[in-house]
Amino acid sequence: MAVLTPVDEVISTLLSQVVAMDETEVVSLRLARGRILAQSINATVDVPPHDNSAMDGYAFNAQDDSIVAGGRYAVSDRIAAGHVGKTLEPGTLARIFTGAPIPEGANAVVIQEDTRMSEGGIELTERPKFGANVRPRGQDIALGSQLLGRGHQLKAADVGLLASTGVNQVEVFRKLKIAIMSTGDELVEPPNALAPGQIYNSNHYTLAAMIEELGMEVVDLGLVPDSLSATVEALATGAETADCIISSGGVSVGEEDHVKAAVENLGRLDLWKVAIKPGKPLAFGFVRARSDADAIPFFGLPGNPVSSFVTFTVIAKPYLLKFQGNESAVGNSLYAMSQFDFKTGGRREYLRVRVSGGNELNAELYDGQGSGVMSSVSWANALAEIEADTQVFPGDKVKVHLLPN
């Protein structure tokens, strides 16, 4: 029996070998969500750029002992957000609104609810202390501080953070081009009618969506007939047009599974069969279109839909993220309390579960865990990682990896 490579060894080896993308481009901040920063970004301004009011109320000098609770004071100025007031006159208040700059001579704000209007002016029912209800300059972001580091994948909130410091474009790594292909004469593209023995090609759509979810570009090599020559031709095309090739199907040991031979025809195969369930038949290697061309990485995923999804998520995804320049290639895992009984076999298993709860997370198991049950993946929001030859009981802590929403 062939020796199966442990999952952690596979991931560690692949990540140690990958060379991150070094080609960069400058893009508008409006188009930057999901992209990977090629350079760290430091703040060129303080945020906020000046002391400003955190509330609607009245600015005053808290160090002026003549201003006390119960006293009535004249209002010498009115300052709205976006406008700079004049220097505060001693013994007076300045009407101020949220976000407006604190005027010279003032250092605190009494909120509107702690005042009363009267004929003699504004009466203070409470007298706050120095600095009360004032957001000091640089409270959020200090000039020169690092906002985001190289290798960070930009989220929507990051885009807003950068905009708040005046950034309008960023240098990012070029998007990886990932070629995808499906093998199998039994596959049919939806919505064409199925003949006896045929199934719809769901893997192709799943892979494309997951790759685009990572912020990468898909190069579609289409459906490849079950022949060695067709497989070699598709791989060569992918090697000419993409940075990496991912295929689904054709990596088993059947007479109609030609991927292994085709990869060896164009390059080399470094990995074959992993101790993972679902997804044992997984291949990794390198292919080139011509003898003088650079070899590009190749992943051969299993044909069963769940196996393809799991192996992409657990093994291919971290590789691609590091290849793209993402410094957070391996996601964080959590622990949840099992709500199920399960006994694993001789391979580590990744079960489709739904995690819920607050401080104490619970993991509920989908009833059908077969490698062809794609409904389990659609239903789940996490994969539970269970080691080989392990019995899980309700109440046990299990490691879970959350799936993208």
Give a summary of the structure in a few sentences:
The chain has 405 residues and is of the alpha/beta class. It has helices spanning 7-17, 156-163, 202-213, 228-241, 259-266, 305-324, 374-379, and strands at residues 24-28, 41-42, 52-53, 57-60, 72-73, 75-79, 93-96, 108-111, 115-118, 121-124, 134-135, 146-148, 169-173, 177-183, 187-188, 199-200, 217-224, 244-248, 267-272, 276-277, 283-287, 296-301, 334-338, 342-343, 348-356, 362-365, 382-386, 391-392, 397-402. The protein has four domains: 7-23 and 176-324, Molybdenum Cofactor Biosythetic Enzyme, Chain A; 26-47 and 139-173, Molybdopterin biosynthesis moea protein, domain 2; 52-135, Beta Complex (Molybdopterin biosynthesis moeA protein, domain 3), CATH 2.170.190.11; 334-402, Beta Barrel (Beta-clip).
Instruction: Indicate the overall shape.
Output: elongated
Query: What value does the Rg take, in angstroms?
Result: 30 Å
Mean pLDDT across all amino acids? 94
> What is the CATH third-level topology name of the largest domain?
Molybdenum Cofactor Biosythetic Enzyme, Chain A
- How would you write the strand order of the largest sheet? 17-14-18-22-21-19
Number of domains: 4
The CATH superfamily of the largest domain is identified as MoaB/Mog-like domain
Q: Structural class, from helix and strand content?
A: alpha/beta
Give the class-level CATH name of the largest domain. Answer: Alpha Beta
Residue share in helix:
10-25%
The number of distinct helices, counting runs of at least 4 residues, comes to: 7
Strand content: 25-35%
Measured between the Cα atoms of the first and last residue, the distance is: 39 Å
Task: Outline the biggest β-sheet.
Answer: 6 strands, mixed
Low-confidence stretches: none
Report the count of strand segments: 29
**CATH architecture label name of the largest domain:** 3-Layer(aba) Sandwich
